[in-house]
User: Fold this.
Amino acid sequence: MAPSDAATRRTGALPSCGFAVGASKKGELPLRVEKRAKGKKVTIVPNVTGDASRLARALQSMLGVGGSVRQVDGNAWAVEVQGEQVPRVTKALLDFDCLRGLSAPALKAARETIEPRRADVAVDRTAATKFLAQTQSGAKLSPEEERRKLLEQEAEFYRQYWDSAVRNDDFADVW
Assistant:
């Protein structure tokens, strides 16, 4: 963990993405699923501080679903995402590094439960990388530099993805 990350976690300041999600009182992941009218399920992300609408927009675009933001009390917000999306939302929150106050066992369990399918990896990683690149860039880059940076990130991602695919797949049955 970088020193700035440790300072952010201690002081309670918001991370560079502009929002933070606090853990439950027991130090667990605060996600829950509610059943609404006509059997519709909604994944709820409570304890959001900072720009909750930014989190909602990011989750909506990454997951391809609808959602909304509700103010619970003073500074706390709750983000609602359509459908039962707990593993995908957990993965996104871990990618954004916006979870605060999780206990070590809860964090380990969250990382173990988000075993994604290969098709989800490409979509989620690319969307998360894009979102974080937009929110973390402090200085404005020229359009050429920005495009070069995005192409480098994309090339690195696909290189890692292809390396893992080649290691994990046995093509003996094809030939």
Q: What stands out?
A: Residues 69 and 104 are 28 Å apart (CA to CA).
